[in-house]
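Onboarding guide, step 5: your first structure request.
Type a short instruction followed by the sequence, for example:

Predict the 3D structure of this protein.
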Amino acid sequence: MAIVLLLALSSAASTARGIEGTIAPASTGPGVHRAVHAFGSSAQTPARSLWDGVYVAEQAARGQAVVARHCGYCHGDGLTGADDPPGPPLKGQRFLDRWFGRSLADLFVVIGVTMPRDDPGSLSLEEYADILGFVLRENGFPAGDTPLPATVEGVGALKAILIQPEPKR
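The system replies with structure tokens like these:
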């Protein structure tokens, strides 16, 4: 069920652009229409910033454990990438440069639709949210008081949050 909803979100957001590989198109059943509507348009003005803290520390801790079980083989337990099998880094300037200007929802969907490599979409939405919390923590984004959502509607709300460098003060 999670993979169908994430596929719908990916189709609505056109997240396949700029990523390696392709994302299969979603079916057009009633659940897909609900997910597409929840995801919304990419033209929204960000109401919140990643720098406001959009995940909780507990999510990042759980995400670290999920990464160790399902992602570390390709991306490394520290998210710095691996050579054999190849997995791009999910931490550091190269990763951030690739994602700056895109929404947090786009990143959530790409992780959910393409990972783990040997069984994409097999984790729960909560586990994908936890992984995203860990990725954010490891890239220096602060934790906050509100957890990342683990529902289709909640992921749709993340469309308004852009991945961007820390604002100058």
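Each response can be followed by summary notes, for example: The chain has one domain: 2-160.
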